[in-house]
Amino acid sequence: MNIRLTFAVLLSLIACPFATAGKPNVIVIMTDDQGWGDLSAHGNTDLSTPHLDSLARDGVSFERFYVSPVCSPTRAEFLTGRYHPRSGVHSTSQGGERMNADEQTIADVFQTAGYATALFGKWHSGTQYPYHPNARGFGEFYGFCSGHWGDYYDPPLEHNGQLVKGEGFMIDDFTRRATEFMSQRHATGKPFFLCLSYNTPHSPMQVPDQWWEKFSHKDIALRPTGGKKTDDLTHTRAALAMCENIDWNVGRLLAKIDELKITEQTLILFLSDNGPNGPRWNGGMKGIKGSVNEGGVRSPLLVRWPGKVPAGKRVAPISAAIDLLPTLAALADIPLASPKPLDGRNLAPLLTDPEKATATWPERKIFSHWGGKISVRTQRFRLDAEGKLFDMIADPGQAKDVAAAHPAITQELKAAAAEWKQSVLNNSGKDRRPFVIAHPAVPWTHIPARDGIAHGNIKRSSIHPNCSYFLNWTSADDNITWNVEVGSSGKYEALLWYACPQADVGSTVELSFGKSRLVGSVTEAHDPPLVGREHDRAPRTESYVKDFRAMKLGVIDLEKGAGTLTLRALKIPGRQVMEFRQLTLQRVK
Predict the structure, then answer these.
(1) What is the pTM of this model?
(2) Strands (DSSP E) found in 148-286
(3) pLDDT, averaged across the chain
(4) What is the SS3 assignment for 427?
(5) pLDDT tens digit string along 275-329?
(6) Cα angle at 257 between 255 and 262, to 5 degrees?
(7) Whether 340 contacts 361, CB under 8 Å
(8) What letter does residue 122 receive in the DSSP assignment?
(9) Among 67, 70, 126, 69, which residue's Cα sits nearest to residue 96?
(10) Peptide bond into 17 cis (omega under 30)
(11) Which of 232, 190, 112, 151 has its CA nearest to residue 544?
(12) Do 356 and 396 have their domain in common?
């Protein structure tokens, strides 16, 4: 017997609020913009996803599982068990992606129960404390906090708040980190809760040659239904190639689980965050990403736990991302004391004994919302955002409005939608929360261009803020501001991540907050090329990126409180000040 390892296990159990012996490891795999139809198990013959298909074969698959129409709302609903507007999430960028700081997350629940918790990949729920993943129950974080990234090869990432450089293709890198984490935690005997949050097949459409070569000229047999051939085949080929890369990485994860001999102790879930990011085959459903129709919100949900969850079973009752927190807590036998009412249901009975539970499962309504539009799903019907009613069993493509044939049901669902709008959406979009900087819990704060407001001539590098930077900073009247709250008074070193050609070196800039001022100059040229285009398999709308350099501006004295953080130029000897990507504050005293 390994005495050292046994002692480590005992120590970990003593340190835990709850005994963790015998509790399952939990792995949640969430992909980004992968539609229900992007799996061969769902009938797509244009690609092959054998490892994902194996989760359905060896576990339970849900026939009608629903998420939100876009990224961060789904993440909020998974993390909190509550509809996303309740937690303050109302957009996908510039602060609207943040869950309120008083929300309890699923990672909080598992961490409190003694689990080692980790997230690898895309977070998309806030950058600064107390919205950072390390502040929301994840002890280990490696990835990026934004909604999308500009280049998937060797990108700038974070590791527990520290800026690092990724290694190779991002999805492959996240999987490698996840398998290393599993090995380390398995050696301690402490169960783990692991979220593997892949950022593909979200655009930009990048995938290694190994997968692209199969699809670059492939004849796509399955196309969108409805009589319109509006799909972009290049985009579709890239998306399917990215899905096969995802499947390969899931295979790597499953192989590591087998290698560690923890297969029967590990509960795995797989889902996507919304419908497909383009009009490609999706089982004949209406709607894609961003839509509250069936195709925009239906996601795979595959669950494997050998010996606990029966193999090859299908669950018919409707369910949603809001159900995952209470379900996983129940399966791990963790007492759930939620500080706020949950919208989700515990699906554990449907997983452990699907046939018995389905026979007595109560009816419910699931609400989908985005962009002011609301739809309501029951087991049989969907009321769309225009008030049309569809029989989803007889008409899964939502082609025939049957409201006139079912007036009572139509009125019932319209009333339910109105009530949900009043109770859940009442304050949605009225976001006055500042960005918290200089939080006392951490010595650093990252303040990206994404969260700033440009004034004057300054423009974003893309219409999509998430991975953008500011350019065209040409006048002393131009400035960048952030609505912030300083969490802790102190002295902070300010670093500007910038790019500037030799001809424009010499500008003087000022960073200010309240009565505090910090002035510095651009003294060194840094003029890197744009990157990302060389890896794209299809045209993009997201920003290309650069290898921005950190410039030490100096130390600023910040007083606790709310106000406006402003970056402006005092002198511009060239045609521009700089291109600006991010401000980082590091506490020095």
Answers:
(1) 0.95
(2) 156-159, 162-165, 192-201, 266-272
(3) 94
(4) coil
(5) 999 999 999 999 999 999 999 999 999 999 999 999 999 999 999 999 999 999 9
(6) 145
(7) no
(8) E
(9) 126
(10) no
(11) 151
(12) no
By CB atoms closer than 10 A (0-12, 13-18, 19+), residue 432 is exposed
CB-CB neighbours of 293 under 10 Å: 23
Q: Which residue is listed with tokens 């974080």?
A: 141
| CA–CA distance, 355 with 365 (Å, rounded to integer) | 21
User: Same domain for 40 and 128?
Assistant: yes
Q: Assign residue 566 the CATH number of its domain.
A: 2.60.120.260
What's the rounded Cα separation, in Å, for the pair 551 and 165? 18
Per-residue CA distances from 169 to 123, 486, 570 (Å): 17, 36, 41
Please determine, for residue 18, whether its predicted confidence score (pLDDT) is greater than 50.
no
DSSP 99: P
Residues 382, 346 share a domain = no
Verify that 405 and 480 share a domain, yes or no.
no
Three-state secondary-structure class, residue 57? helix
Residue 524 lies in a domain: yes
Are 32 and 200 within 8 A, CB to CB? yes
Give the model confidence (pLDDT) of 517-555 as tens digits: 999 999 999 999 999 999 999 999 999 999 999 999 999
3-state secondary structure of 319: strand
Q: Do β-strands 479-486 and 435-437 pair in parallel, antiparallel, or remain unpaired?
A: parallel
Per-residue pLDDT tens over the stretch 109-157: 999 999 999 999 999 999 999 999 999 999 999 999 999 999 999 999 9
Residue 141 shares a structural domain with residue 250: yes
Number of domains in the chain: 3
Q: Is 78 helix (H, G, I), strand (E, B) or coil?
A: helix
Q: Mark whether 377 and 262 lie in a shared domain.
A: no
| 234 and 312 fall within a common domain | yes
On whether residue 21 sits in a domain, the answer given is no
- Is 526 contained in some domain? yes
Specify the residue for token string 């969108």.
224
Asked whether 88 and 433 are in contact (CB, 8 A), the reply is yes
pLDDT at 5 over 70: no
Q: How confident is the model at residue 13 (pLDDT cuts 50, 70, 90)?
A: very low
- What is the Rg, in whole angstroms, of the alpha carbon atoms belonging to the chain? 25
Same domain (yes/no): 580, 494: yes
Q: Which domain, by its residues, includes 404?
A: 373-424
Show which of 360, 383, 415 is a domain's final residue.
Answer: 360
Q: What is the DSSP letter of 282?
A: S
**Last residue of some domain: 339, 360, 381?**
360
Give the C-alpha separation, 501 to 257, whole Å. Answer: 49
Query: Considering the domain boundaries, does residue 15 fall inside one?
Result: no
What are the distances in angstroms from CA 291 to CA 90, 369, 402?
A: 15, 9, 20
d(CA 270, CA 309): 14
